[in-house]
Amino acid sequence: MTLSIIWKVAISFFIGAIPFAKIAMIGTGIDITKVGSKNPGFNNVLRVSSKWRAVLTLTGDIFKGFVALMLLSRGEPASVQWVLGIAAVMGHCWSPFTGFNGGKGVATTVGVLLFLQPWLTIPCLPLYAILRAVGKRMRWRQEGAIASLTTMFVIATLVLVLQGTAAGLFAYVMLAIIVIRHAPNLREIIS
């Protein structure tokens, strides 16, 4: 890896680390990392605050994944673009601005995938809303986690099948990060 790529990876990590959940909560007196699930992400903001603050969080988290690649990936090969995207997701999940305990990574992964694989990602996004609605109606435990993990698995699998092994492996690395961050949710589903 050249020095310029290392710098780009570091910058992508720090763009991903921007804590939009904390930004969205400015003026409320609420530290999102200390209430609800303590997760600085869309669902926790929605749970403890207002819809517009949750939408701001979601939009910012998606946007930062997309923007990191838009700013840093020009002229880089696909493998470097994927690495930059993974760095942004890792920045979100292990943000130094939240004591290295960031969000679950789903929204930032969506932003990365919207940049890298828009024609596969966009048609899959309604699956999240459908599973979330079905899960709520059927009273699934952790319907948000189920909807997120299933949607990300479908997208990663489509990338693997339609774009080849290299792209698929990178997509599965991002999926693995999301699975790791959802470990508590998975334990609750299993128990």
Strand content: under 5%
Distance between the termini: 43 Å
Instruction: Tell me, rounded to a whole number, the average pLDDT.
Output: 95
Task: Show unreliable segments.
Answer: none
Shape: globular
Main β-sheet, in a few words?
Answer: none
Q: Domains counted in the coordinates: how many?
A: 1
Structural category: mainly alpha
Give the % helix. over 70%
Q: Quaternary arrangement of the chains shown?
A: single chain
The total count of strands amounts to 0
State the order of secondary-structure elements, H for helix, E for strand: HHHHHHHHHH
Number of helices: 10
Rg measurement, Å: 16 Å
List keywords for this structure.
191 residues, mainly alpha, globular
How would you characterize this protein structure?
With 191 residues, this protein is mainly alpha-helical. The protein has helices spanning 3-16, 20-24, 42-48, 51-72, 78-93, 106-116, 118-137, 143-163, 165-181, 183-190. The chain has one domain (3-190).
Describe the SSE topology.
Layout: H1 3-16, H2 20-24, H3 42-48, H4 51-72, H5 78-93, H6 106-116, H7 118-137, H8 143-163, H9 165-181, H10 183-190
Helix pairs in contact: 1-4, 1-5, 3-4, 4-5, 4-6, 5-6, 5-9, 6-7, 7-8, 8-9
